Fold:
Amino acid sequence: MRQTILRALEEVYGNLVHMIAEFLPRFLVMLIIIVIGLLAAVVLKYILRALLGLTKLDRVSDDAGASRVLRMAHLPPMTELLSRSIFWVTWIGFILVGLSVLRVAGLQEQISRLFQFLPEVFVAILILFLGAVIANFLSRTALLAAVNAGHPSPKILSWSIRFVIWILAISMTLEELGVARQTVISAFSIIFGASMLGLAIAFGLGGQDLARKCLERYLGDTKKKEDKEPQPL
Amino acid sequence: MAEDVFLSDDLLRQLMSVGEVDLLVGMSSHNAANTVRHALDAIEEGLQRNFVRQRVVIVNVGGGDEHEDSVVAQGHGHLAEKGVRLHGITSLRTSHRVTANVSGPPSPGIALRTILAAADLLRARACAVVSPAASNLTPDSVANLLRPVYREKFDFVAPLYTRNKYQGLLARNLLYPMSRALFGCGIRELFSDEFGFSGRLAALCLNQDVWHEEAMQARPEAWLAISAISSDFRCCQAFLGEKSQATKGLGTDIVEVLRQTVGTLFWCLETQQSWWLECGKSQAVPTFGPAHELTSDPTDLDRHRIFEMFRSGVTELEPILSSILDPETHSEIKSIVAVEEGKFRFKSDIWVRTLYDFAASYHHAVINRDHLVQALAPLYRGMTYSFLLEHSDSSPAEMEAASEVLCGEFELQKPYLMERWKAKVEVKS
Amino acid sequence: MTRQKDNLWYKDAVIYQLHVRTFCDSNADGIGDFAGLTQRLDYLQELGITAIWLLPFFPSPLRDDGYDIADYTSVHASYGSLEDFKTFLAEAHSRGLRIIIEMVLNHTSDQHPWFKEARGSRENPKRDWYVWSETDTGYQGVPIVFVDTETSNWAWDPISKTYYWHRFFSHQPDLNFDNPAVFEAVWEVMKFWLNLGVDGFRLDAVAYLVEREGTLCENLPETHAIIRELRKRLDLAHPGAMLLAEANQWPADVRAYFGDGDEFHAAFHFPLMPRMFMAVKLEDRKPIIEILDQTPEIPASCQWFIFLRNHDELTLEMVTDVERDYMYDEYAMDKTMRINRGIRRRLAPMMDNDRRRIELLNGLLMSMPGTPIVYYGDEIGMGDNIYLGDRNGVRTPMQWNSALNAGFSLADPERLYAPVISNAVYGYQAVNVDSQKRSEHSLLRWMKSLLQVRNAFQAFSRGTIQFLNPSNHRVLAYMRQFREETVLVVNNLSSSAQAVELDVQRYKGYIPIEMFGRNLFPRFGNSPYLLTLGPYQFYWFQLRRF
Structure:
C-alpha cells in the first residue's frame, strides 16, 4: 500500500513537474508578449498623441462641446483620452493574446468570444458618447435660439430635444449590444411614433389658436423686432 | 507651402492693364446694379474733385451679375467720355474700373481679401472700402477716407457718424469701450462698411493666415483695424456724416449681429493676446472733421419687451450662464433680474465684469464658442433696457459723459480680465 | 533736286521752323543772315526736312521779335538784302526745299509808314486803315492776349489824341479790314512775295482780323470772308502756294478756317501739342485720344500742322485750369519759366534731357496725323535760357560746333544778338551739330533716320488714323492707312516696361515689319497680339500681307 501511495505521489509529482515544465515556457512567452505589448502600446500612444495634436482635435472637440462632456465626467481632453484608450486597447489585446498562449482549457474559447464581442462594446460606448455630446449640443442650441426668439417655453423645447436624442442613443446602444433587440426596436418605434403623433394632435387640434398665434408671431415678429429694438450698430 | 490661389485670371488681366496706382477704392456688390451706379458716380466725383492728378482705380467685387458688370465697365462711357466735365471738373487721367467676379454672393471676407490683394499688386498708397448700398455715400465721404492716408500718412481710417442717440448701442456700450480698454485705441466704429487703409497695412494683413477663419467671413474690417492697432500703425477717424440705416433683417437681428461683432472681437482677443495683455492705457485717436455727433430724434422702441426678454433669458439660460460667469457676477445678475422693471439698472461694473467673464470663457472654450456669444444676447438686452431708461431725457453731452465713464470702468477692470484669462479652467457641471 | 509740281505738297512736307537771325551769321555782326542761312541749306537737306518756315525777317523795330513789321516788302538790314533773300530762295528751291514766310496781316508796327500816316491826322487817307476810338470802352470783354505786359486792348495815341485798337502789344496797332483798301494793300504785299517765288504764307493772328461789338472779336464771319477772297486770288495767281493759319483755338473752332477747302490750306493743331507733353508726364494716353476724338474731319485738300515746340511759349490756352496747373507743376516749377499762360522752354530741357523721351515725342510728332514742324535746334537737343526776357530763351543761336560762338558767328561773343547756351548740360561744347554728325548714335543721326522713314510713307502724312485703345492705358497705339499702305504705331508713354495686347484680329494674316530695322515680327493671328515695350519705346510697323 505504501508503495502504491508512494508510486501515486511520484506519479502526481511527476505530472505536476511535467505540467509546470510545460506551463512555465508558455507563461514566460505570455510575459514576453505582455511586455512587448506594453512597449507597443506606449509607442502607439505617443504616435497617436502627436498625430492628433497636429489635427488640433482638442479645438474641434471644444467647439463641438465634447470637451465639456469629458470634463464633466472628469475625463482628460480628447487627444489624451484617445491616446490612452489606444494604449489600453493595444495592451489589453496583447494581454489577451498572451493569455491565449497559456492554453488554459475553456479560457481560449472565452477569450475568443470576448474578442468577438469587443468591437460591439466599443461601438456601443461610442454611440452613447456621441449621443451625449449631440444631445448636449443640440439642446443647448435649441435653448439659446428659443430664448433669443422670445419663445414662451424654451426649456421644454430644449429638454424635448435632449430626451429624444438620448432615447435614440440608448436604443441604438442596446441594439448594438444585442440586448433584447426586437423589444428595444419595437419600444423605441412605439414611443417615438406616439410622441410625434401626440405632439401633432395636441398642437394641430388642441392648440389651433396657439398654432395660429405662433405662426403669426413668427411671421410678424421679424418685422416687429426690427421696428421695436434699437439698431445695435 | 504654396499660397492658395484666389485671384482669377480675368481679374489679374484687368489689374495688369491698370498698373501702379496712387488710390484704390473697393466695394462689394451683388445683384445691385442700380446702387452700384450711384456709388460709382459718387466715388468718381469724389476722386475727381479731390485727387484729380492721382492714378486711381475702383475695384468692385461682384457676384457675376452681367448687368452689374456692364454698369461698372461703362466707366468712360458713363462719366469720363471725351473729356466730359463732371460738375465742372475735367478728368486728367484714364479712370479705371475693375470687376472681380466671384461665384455667388461674395462674403465680406472674400471681398476684403480681394481688395487687399488688388491694392498690394497695384502698390496703392491709399485705399478705401465703401458700401454701394449705403445711403450716406457721398463724394466727400470717399475723399475723407482717403485723405488722411494719402496726405497725412495714416494707416487706418475709421468712420465717424452723426447718429441718433439710441442708435449703435452695441458699439457704444460694448464694442467701443471694450476695444478701447483692451487695445488701447479709441476707435468708435470698429465695425463699419466704410473705412480707409494704407497699402502698407494691406500688405501686412494679406500675409496673415486668417482668411479661412469663420470670424473673418462676416466682419473682417474689425480685424483689419485691430491688426493696425496691434502692429503700431497710425490710426485715425474721419467724419462721414449721417450713418445710413442698416439693411433689413440682418442689421437688427441682435443675435446675428452679436455673433458677427462680439464673436469677431473675442476672436481678435484670442489672436492678438500678446498685444493687449501688455498694452497700457488707451490713447486718443486723431479725428478729421467734426467729432461724432448725436441727435435726439424721437424713436419708437418697445422697452417692456426688451426687459422681458432679458429677464426670461437670464432665467432660462441659468445653467449656461453659470458655466460662463464667475459665481459672484452670476449672483449679482440674478439679483438684478428680480428688480422691478421701472427701477432696473444694469450697473457699469457688473456689465463690464459680465463681458470680461464672457471673454475669458470664450478663451477657455468652456462651451461651444458660438453658443457662448449667443448667450450674451439677453444680457445685452438688459444693458440696453437700462441704458434707455437712464438716458431717456439725457442730452447728447450727458450721454457722452456716461460713455466716458463706462470706458473708464472697462479700463479699471482690465486686470480682472487678465487674471481670468490666464487662470486654469475649473470644470463646472 | 527740284521741287515736285504738286499742289498738295504741304501734306507730305516736314517743316523746319527757324528765324534767320538765329541760324548762321556770315558777316560777323553777331546776327544771323540770309547768306549764312544759304550756307547751311545742305545741312537742312541732309536732315530730311522738305520745307522751311521763316519767322519774320522784315524791317522792324524788333520789339516783338519781328512780328511788329515796319515794311512788308523788304528785308531787315541785319539779315541781309532782298537780293540775299532771292539767292537763298533759289538755292533752297534747287535743293527741293520749299519756303514758307510769315505774313502778319492783323497788325503792323507803330513805325510802319501806314500807321505814321494814319496817326498824323484824322483826315489822312490812311486814317481809316487802323481802328480808332475816342474812348477805350469799345469791344468790352475781349480778352487780352499778352496778359503779362498789357492791361488793355486800347492804347492812347498822344499824336492823334485818340485810342487805337491792338490785340497784341501796344506798339502793334491792328489794321482795319473793314476798309477795302487795307485788303488790297495786303494782297499787293502777298503778291510781291509770291512773285519772288515763296511757296506759302503763315498768316499770323488770323483770328483777330475783324472786330464787332458784342463779340470776342475773334473768328468772325467777316474774317472768313476776307480769307476766302485771299484764297481765291491766290489760287488764280499762284496755284500751289499755301496759306497756313495761326489760330490758337479748339479744333472745332479752327475747322471753320478750312471752309469748304476754300479758305486756308492748313492750320496749326494747337490743342494737341500740350497734350502730348501731358500724356508723357501722366503716362496715360487719355489727353491725346480725347483731343483727337474732338478733332473734326477737314476737307481732303486741307491739313493739320502739328508741332512740339516753336518760337513762342508752349501755350496752355487750350487746356483746362486743372491741366494748366498740372503742366506748370510738372514742366515749369520755376515761375521764371512761365509767361503769358504758357511755358517758355525748349523740348530737351522739358524732357530733362532724357533721350528716350525726346525720341518718343518726336516719334509721336512724326506719326500723328498732320504735317510735322521741327523747331530749329530740337534735332540736336538744344537747351534754353529762361533768364533772357520774353520768349528769347528759346531763340538762342544755333549750335554748330564747339568753336567760338558755337560756330554761329565769328563776331565777339558780346556782340551776339543773344548769348549762346554754355552750361554743362546743353552748352554748345556738348550739344552741337558737328559732334552729333560724328557720333553714329547721336540724336541728330536718329532724327535723320526718323525723317527718312517717315518721308518714305504717305500713310503718315495723308493717312487715316484709327486708335486701337488696348486695355493698358499707358500704351498709345493706332493704325495709319493710306491706299495700300498700312502702318501700326505703338508708343509706350510710361517710364517702365509695358506689355500690351493689341486687338488686330481684323488684320489677321498681316506681317508686321519693324520700319527702322526692317525686321519681321510674328504674323497677326486670331488672338490679341502681345507686344512688350521698354520705357518710352515706340514701334512703327509696316503691315504687309503675304
The first strand of chain B starts at residue 23 and ends at 28. Chain B has two domains: 9-294, 303-422. DSSP finds 19 helices and eleven strands in chain B. The CA atoms of residues 18 and 96 of chain B lie 7 Å apart.
